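Example complex used in Figure S2.
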Amino acid sequence: MGLRKFIDKIKPNFEEGGKLYCFHSFFDAMETFFYVPNKVTINGAHVRDAVDMKRNMIYVLIALIPCFLFGTWNIGYQHFLSHGEAATLMQNFGYGLMKILPLYIVSYVVGLGIEIIFAQVRKEEVNEGFFVTGFLIPLIMPADVPLWMLAIAVAFAVIIGKEVFGGSGMNVVNPALLARAFMFFSYPSQMSGDSIWIAEKADAYSGATPLGTLLNGGGVEQLPSMMEMFIGTIPGSVGETSKIAILLGALFLIVTGVASLRVILSTFVGAAALGLLFTAIGVSDVPFYYHYLMGGFMFGAIFMATDPVTAAQTNCGKIIYGFLIGAMAVLIRVANPGYPEGMMLAILLLNVFAPLIDYCVVAMNISKRKKRWAQAERSAK
Amino acid sequence: MSKNLELLTAPLRKANPVTVLILGICSALAVTAKLKPALVMALSVTVVIALSNLVISLLRKGIPSKIRIIVQLIVIATLVILVDQFLKAFVYDVSKQLSVFVGLIITNCIVMGRLEAFAMANGPWESLLDGIGNGLGYGIILVIVAFFRELFGSGTLLGFQIIPEGLYNFGYMNNGLMILPPMALIIVGVIMWLQKPEEDKK
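Predicted assembly (583 residues):
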């Protein structure tokens, strides 16, 4: 193990009094990233799991790989399609990679930089929370987003969304979604409309996303076919288009137990319930299953809504939380003329309400048990 | 004299009505999209607090405790209407931008709070100083918030273009979120965040 030896060799430099002590947060982050830390707790008994937070985060990253690969290919595919040029698989992929790598570099350099500065000032270990956030952020942006805007959005999300509350695990809303919401409200011309979803689109080509088409008064028959939306060969944010890739990731997350199946299923049920209601009373003629296939619904339901920090914690709470996310997302999509995509706002809203939902569930449980106990006492007398 | 000086300076930082006492937040969100209305608003509130503090302090021994809130409200309302008429007469465009928020100074918690907490129990001179101090404390936050919101939201300060044209050609854009009221809340929050550890140290 050459790397282990190397790390051990340079380690003394980063310990207190060493030459490079000012970088100790960064060193610590990298060391625990490569190897499971061998630190032991000194006093008291602690229950320990073999899977720590860093490993848990890496499962999410693995689950995102299909979305990343397909999204990268789709950037190139949509670009060459809009220009009417034929391109091979590798050309598509290469073009996509050229577009998406700068986004990743900016996202990680800015985000991790801020995390490391805060950890250093607070004399804490660097938290690994940003690995997933930083990977998610480029996947929920259009491929052509200007890099300086991305940098500001990431900085805003990490500082205002997370660090002011005390860092990873203390955040109220999902930082990746906050970065997107910041972009959406700060620079609307870069985050909505028909012209931004395809990288360097040819002017004559319509680049409307399915949700954009509906917003502009198009009917269901003008949408791409369900198969196209399912496979993902449509314009949109990088990671959200392919439902196959998202479902592959979902399968992995559910099998490994990282994502809560309760949240995912109840989100789908919530969207179906409101979707059916809207078609039944004639407000909208979009069948409910179209809402699963359009925009970021699935991506949000599987990778964002299930974020263990910001979701509801109680089992019953998770169901209410998921159901309301699905219902709100469809409500905003159908009823709000301003914002075509409701999933982002729905998840952020319910993130804020998750602690309240938990509080009510716990309070109800307590009062139920009190009643049962009082009854048992009465019958005992 | 140093005690009187304290009355003026304490509300600027450690007893700031907005960031420490969390009063008057509503108008801080509403009028801070541009620097000019924020300055006018800060000045109007300072005048109202200072004069109402002075008047109530002079009357304090004659006000029956049961109806003191009504008396205070009448004094504040009179002063606010005077300020409103003054703004309409001399700076009509700003008065239009501020719209109802000048009238709403009547319900600004800082004014009422200072009357109840200070003017009812202190002499006229101290009350006047306390009123000016609190008005300035409120104003300084308004100006800081408006400075950032106008600079990054519109690229201007007091209406003059600050961000150079050339930057826009490079793809720079004004930040739309800065114009929206939530950003004022976030900036006020950041000011509190920066201020808090410093106060804890003392």
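Chain A has two domains: 19-37+53-202+213-232, 259-381. The radius of gyration of chain A is 23 Å.
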